[in-house]
Design goal:
10 helices
């Protein structure tokens, strides 16, 4: 799928988690719901670090472009080193390593560890990166005609304000993990969820997605999971723009309302 659809699906997924938490009697404070949805929306773009033309490659100027090239080469190297004879030959790393459950867990776990051991500045850095990505995905029309510097300033300002809100007693820094020093351990959860939602979205397209690697399926180590061929669509097609994106917005709205106990 394209960047805007990925971000919308990520935000809707976290709002759905908020609704499930409310139904289970563990209601999220509203700052956790909002920040988690924005992080998840940003994280839903991150698996495309292996694609030099993806939305994320433009998000941080030369830095993200260079990072995408590095990750593409790394992903391709891992694919070549681990492919079976049944896996097709490839010329690049797109939709390989970064589109797996293992990558999602490692990145989310790494961000949680950084938030715990890196303190406030690590939390601010995680928020900044994902808020910039959320702007690029959710407000993509405005972001493309705007200056990159303005988008970065918006991300930095929002990160500083939201971190301050979360730090207030009862506002959610310790929503899930209340032990001293573990307040922001939950930050990895929307990052894992965003990456997995991205992978599921790509699995719906023509090429499928090797979400389960390194678990082999049949004779393939990089089996492209997806629904039956007739149910798949091409990225950017009318199905994505006219059906899925409106559905994500509706589901996100319902999930958010349920998470806040409005319905």
């Amino acid at each position: 799928m394209m960047g805007p659809a990925h971000s919308l699906s990520g935000a809707a997924a976290w709002l759905g988690v908020g609704a499930a938490a409310a139904a289970a009697g563990h209601t999220m404070p509203w700052p956790v719901l909002v920040v988690g949805a924005l992080i998840c929306a940003g994280a839903a773009l991150a698996p495309d670090l292996d694609h030099k033309s993806a939305t994320i490659s433009r998000a941080f100027g030369p830095v993200s472009k260079a990072l995408c090239e590095i990750v593409d080469k790394l992903s391709f190297a891992v694919y070549k080193a681990t492919r079976s004879t049944a896996d097709p030959r490839r010329t690049g790393g797109h939709r390989t390593l970064t589109h797996t459950w293992l990558w999602a867990v490692l990145v989310g776990g790494g961000c949680s560890a950084a938030a715990i051991f890196g303190g406030r500045w690590a939390v601010l850095a995680i928020l900044f990166v994902h808020l910039v990505l959320a702007v690029e995905g959710l407000l993509w029309r405005a972001a493309r005609v705007s200056s990159d510097v303005l988008v970065w300033l918006l991300g930095a300002t929002s990160a500083w304000i939201l971190a301050g809100v979360l730090d207030q007693p009862g506002n959610g820094a310790g929503w899930l993990f209340g032990a001293p020093g573990q307040e922001y351990l939950w930050l990895g959860l929307p990052i894992v969820l965003g990456a997995l939602v991205h992978d599921i979205g790509d699995a719906l397209t023509v090429s499928g997605c090797p979400i389960l690697w390194p678990i082999p399926i049949g004779r393939k180590r990089w089996y492209p999971l997806g629904p039956p061929k007739f149910m798949r669509f091409r990225a950017g097609s009318w199905v994505e723009m006219k059906v899925l994106m409106p559905a994500f917005m509706v589901l996100g709205g319902v999930g958010g309302a349920a998470a806040l106990n409005y319905i």
